């Protein structure tokens, strides 16, 4: 998945808030240095926004011998900076300030102690002409970026990272120098709106070569991603182009928006550093779909939780209890000698799972495979390294699965404790059969005794041709056995019904566990990624 492309202008507040959110969401998932840089941009923006918005800090940056100090003096209308030819003369940045009221906090933040007020009266610092419309301009002369002194280069790097507007002063001999292009200009491609390039010392070139050098420079800048920046040919010695540069600075200062454009560009650059995808999705494009519960995961968890064992035990327990309640009383006591299948598992009253078999190595492997499949499905449309964090999230609570499944099986109603009403009726009928059997047996025994003692036999009632004692004895025995067989068949069907209901209840419990411990963490991480993408798209949006 690529980043979303914002097609509408994004206010600075929204950019910075989005960058802060993206940095928070990326914590622990993306490069820590990039996250820290993003947070530093947000922090720096908060400080700059609290300083003077009526002043624009413009830095003149360039290499040794580029003539930026001479250009600084020309723009200031006074000899403020020492000018050298072949070696660095500027060791610390200095500022020329037009309209100093309210500029001190900004200059303190920029850490520029050497300050010149332009256009002051006789009591002020060196006076010079004050170009119309330039009130609010803070012009900085930076040390040389290629100085042999490390402190000079560090000073340049620091101020290039915080000033509102950058003026790169190049000279005809070194305007193509890879050092300035690779170290400074190319990384500032998102800062086109706050970058100006001056080709200084054009008075040293033949007239026909000036245009050729400017065109060549524009080509190099286009290759750096700075094809839209203003490029001005100038000569601090003759004054050529200085007026054009001064007018451009006056316009930027009058707009009072350079500082906001700089912060917006910083936010976009920091966002790009967080995520290096070049292609962006159109705004409103759908993100990756949330992962859903996979049946293979549920099945693997059911096997690991011994759900099939419990379901079979429910069916067997129903048959066992049915025989105890409805079997032929003469033989049902034998059934009581057998253990109840559910009581043997200690699950009849929602007790602790103590007798279910632990998961086998095959079942554990099946669960692990199912977890990997869920993570892979969730991360399918997500690039690295976010895909790795999503896959990890799907497995992050795997250690809790065993206990959670134990509790689920233990507390799930197994629908086995309620005896059907027909058991009591059939049980009563079986006792009637026993009474009939006993009555018939005793009656026949009495008749046998009468015959044995040669007594006069009383008349014996008959059912057709069969004496009633025989009917009672045979009917009681055969009827009891027949009812017991019918009851066993009904119990088998009832056991299957209860097993299905139990399986459904246990499956629902296992699905809840899988959703809470596997699917939800994966989707939370997926949602985090989607929010990160959208926040980053806002922070990295092109200027409207």
Features:
alpha/beta, 8% strand, single chain, 544 residues, seven-stranded mixed β-sheet
Give a short synopsis of this structure.
By secondary structure, this protein is an alpha/beta fold. A seven-stranded mixed β-sheet has the order 4-3-5-2-6-7-8, sandwiched between helices. A two-stranded parallel ribbon has the order 1-9. Helices cover 55% and strands 8% of the residues.
List the helices and strands and how they pair.
Layout lengths: L2 E3 L6 H15 L5 H18 L6 E7 L5 H9 L17 E5 L5 H7 L3 E5 L18 E5 L8 H11 L4 E6 L7 H8 L9 E5 L7 H17 L7 E3 L8 H14 L2 H17 L5 E3 L12 H10 L2 H20 L2 H8 L24 H18 L7 H10 L5 H11 L9 H32 L9 E2 L2 E2 H72 L5
Parallel strand pairs: 1-9, 2-5, 2-6, 3-4, 6-7, 7-8
Antiparallel strand pairs: 3-5, 10-11
Helix pairs in contact: 1-2, 1-9, 1-17, 2-9, 10-13, 10-17, 11-12, 11-17, 13-14, 13-17, 14-17, 15-17, 16-17
* Low-confidence runs: 120-133, 278-285, 349-354
**Helical stretch count?**
17
Number of strands: 11
Summarize the biggest pleated sheet: 7 strands, mixed
User: What proportion of the residues form beta strands (DSSP E)?
Assistant: 5-15%
| Global mean pLDDT | 84
The SSE string, one letter per element, is EHHEHEHEEHEHEHEHHEHHHHHHHEEH
The order of strands across the largest sheet is 4-3-5-2-6-7-8
Rg over C-alpha atoms, rounded to the nearest angstrom? 46 Å
Helix share bin: 40-55%
């Amino acid at each position: 998945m690529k980043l979303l492309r914002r097609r509408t202008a994004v206010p600075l507040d929204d950019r910075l808030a989005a960058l802060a959110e993206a940095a928070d969401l990326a914590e622990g998932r993306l490069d820590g240095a990039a996250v820290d840089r993003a947070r530093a941009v947000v922090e720096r923006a908060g400080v700059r926004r609290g300083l003077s918005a009526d002043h624009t800090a413009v830095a003149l940056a360039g290499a040794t011998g580029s003539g930026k100090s001479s250009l600084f003096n020309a723009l200031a209308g006074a000899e403020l900076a020492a000018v050298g030819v072949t070696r660095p003369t500027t060791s610390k940045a200095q500022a020329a300030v037009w309209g100093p009221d309210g500029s001190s906090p900004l200059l303190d933040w920029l850490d520029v102690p050497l300050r010149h007020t332009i256009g002051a009266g006789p009591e002020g610092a060196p006076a010079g002409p004050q170009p119309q419309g330039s009130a609010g301009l803070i012009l900085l002369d930076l040390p040389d970026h290629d100085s042999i002194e490390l402190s000079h280069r560090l000073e340049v790097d620091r101020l290039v990272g915080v000033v509102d507007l950058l003026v790169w002063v190049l000279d005809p001999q070194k305007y193509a120098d890879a050092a300035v292009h690779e170290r400074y200009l190319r990384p500032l491609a998102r800062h086109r709106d706050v970058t100006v390039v001056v080709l200084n010392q054009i008075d040293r070139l033949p007239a026909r070569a000036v245009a050729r050098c400017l065109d060549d420079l524009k080509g190099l800048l286009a290759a750096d991603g700075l094809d839209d920046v203003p490029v001005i040919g100038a000569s601090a010695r003759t004054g050529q182009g200085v007026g054009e540069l001064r007018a451009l600075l006056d316009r930027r200062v009058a707009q009072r928006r350079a500082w906001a454009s700089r912060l917006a560009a910083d936010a976009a650059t920091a966002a790009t550093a967080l995520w290096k995808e070049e292609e962006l999705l159109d705004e409103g494009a759908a993100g990756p779909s949330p992962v859903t519960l996979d049946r293979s995961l549920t099945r693997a968890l059911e096997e690991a939780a011994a759900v099939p064992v419990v379901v079979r035990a429910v069916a067997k327990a129903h048959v066992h209890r049915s025989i105890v309640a409805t079997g032929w009383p003469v033989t049902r006591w034998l059934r009581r000698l057998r253990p109840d299948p559910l009581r043997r598992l200690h699950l009849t009253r929602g007790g602790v799972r103590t007798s279910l078999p632990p998961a086998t190595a095959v079942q554990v492997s099946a669960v692990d495979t199912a977890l990997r499949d869920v993570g892979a499905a969730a991360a399918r449309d997500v690039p690295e390294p976010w895909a790795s964090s999503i896959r990890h999230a799907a497995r992050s609570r795997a250690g809790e699965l065993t206990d959670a499944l134990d509790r689920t099986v233990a507390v799930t109603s197994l629908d086995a404790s309620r005896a059907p009403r027909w058991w009591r009726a059939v049980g009563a009928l079986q006792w009637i059969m026993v009474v009939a059997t006993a009555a018939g047996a005793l009656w026949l025994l009495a008749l046998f005794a009468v015959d044995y003692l040669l007594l006069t036999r009383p008349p014996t009632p008959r059912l057709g041709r069969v004496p009633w004692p025989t009917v009672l004895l045979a009917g009681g025995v055969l009827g009891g056995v027949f009812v017991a067989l019918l009851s066993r068949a009904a119990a088998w069907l009832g056991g299957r019904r209860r097993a299905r209901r139990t399986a459904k209840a246990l499956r629902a419990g296992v699905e809840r566990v899988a959703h809470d411990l596997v699917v939800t963490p994966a989707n939370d991480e997926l949602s985090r990624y989607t929010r990160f993408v959208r926040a980053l798209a806002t922070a990295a949006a092109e200027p409207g």
